[in-house]
Amino acid sequence: MSRLLTLVFSVAVLFGALNAQVSQGQRHDVGLMDYAVNRISVIGDSYTTGGDEGGTGTKGWPTQVWRALTQHGIAVTPTVAAEGGAGYCTRGDRGSVFEDLAVRAVKPTDVLVVFFGSRNDMAVDPTRLSVAMYGTFTLARQIARSAKFLVIGPAWPTADPPPAVRRIRDVLGYQAELAGATFVDPIAARWFVGAPDLIGADGVHPNDAGHTYLATKLAPLIGAQLNPY
To answer: What does the pLDDT look like over 108-160, one tens digit per residue?
Structure first.
């Protein structure tokens, strides 16, 4: 993607927000354009739902990304299923893992399925984690057979994430490759590094500015999967 296209996405994100609801821990269909050809499913954790530190409702990165894509002429019909505390193996606040969220969100007509996270799997044995990732991607593929997959690894707000987080990243990158997905590594890309003003007081979750920052990163990535040129 050209620098110009990335800039267009970033400007659109910074100056727009949709009047759509993204509520924590639930599947939500953002009825942006029901006629849109580009159906997208997003599966994630609290970095997607937002929470007490920021990123709820229209301030979250998902609604900002949909706005950016629309401004760029890419119509989408998104479904977001995300839950705080959830991972591929770790159950979230409402008892779900990513596989459960994928079942709720992914549709046969999806053109893109996005997975984001999760640092919540830090305590999971790598072999078990790998098996769970494989099963989740396989299930999603069985539902959305022609969709592209965009798999985004866990983000960390400093330049020195613990070994457990790097291990999640490595296992996820391997399984994403097996699934034929595009893999994005926020750790290698140094998302949030050197920008503590983008992280809330808990030192973990993005605040509202952090969600806008995420949108500037994710809109070009998602757009590149949808734009045929």
So the answer is: 999 999 999 999 999 999 999 999 999 999 999 999 999 999 999 999 999 99
pLDDT tens figures, 156-209: 999 999 999 999 999 999 999 999 999 999 999 999 999 999 999 999 999 999
46 catalytic per annotation: yes
Domain architecture of the chain: domains with CATH? 3-226 (3.40.50.1110)
**Residue 117 to residues 12, 18, 34, 212: CA-CA distances in angstroms?**
25, 24, 27, 17
Q: Choosing from 96, 100, 185, 205, which is the catalytic residue? A: 205
Q: Is the pTM of this model over 0.85?
A: no
Instruction: Determine whether 72 is an active site residue.
Output: no
Q: Active site residue: 10, 46, 96, 130, which one?
A: 46
The Cα 66–Cα 115 span in angstroms is: 16
Active site residue 205: yes
